[in-house]
Amino acid sequence: MTLIKPTRIKQSKGALDAVLHGRVVAIDPASGAASNPGYCIMQGGVIQEYGILRVPRAKTINLRLKAIHETIRDELPEADLLVIEDIPAFFLQKFPHSCKPLLFSCGVIMAAKPWPFVLPIQPSVWYSVVDKIIPGKRANYNKQDEHDALMLAVTAYTLAANQPKVKTENLLLPQGLDIGRLVK
Fold this sequence. Notes:
Layout: E1 2-3, H1 13-21, E2 23-28, E3 38-43, E4 46-52, H2 61-75, E5 81-85, H3 89-94, H4 96-111, E6 117-121, H5 123-133, H6 145-161
Parallel strand pairs: 1-6, 2-5, 5-6
Antiparallel strand pairs: 2-3, 3-4
């Protein structure tokens, strides 16, 4: 597994090819009993599907993480690249009780399959894409786990397909993206 920085995706031929031409699985991690990981599958720059992974409830974090691992291992296809939310370090200081299990979940997700490349994307990066494509910006974004996973995949695609400083009206987006479903 090779970790790719979002700012370096164009310098990694393997990761760039994976995003533009291969299969990408994007996962918005979750570890709490009340939420489930969101996922998105993109193939060759076309959104194939996205939704929620139904993970069995568990009484303890270790059993919940085991269930997340098994669900991802058994229900998601092999992929050329995993896109996952990169939880910023300051979240751990600000929200330690919710952030620690989330970080554990990220590790479990990364270990669930033999992903050749992993692209961690911070929320501020994918929020900037939301602000470019959603009318009214993030205030109108319908924040749900499956939408967050979709936006992680869309952000990976925009990082790979677009030139730096591209204007919103010229932004290349993956095919099959229904922006209307993302709006409140």
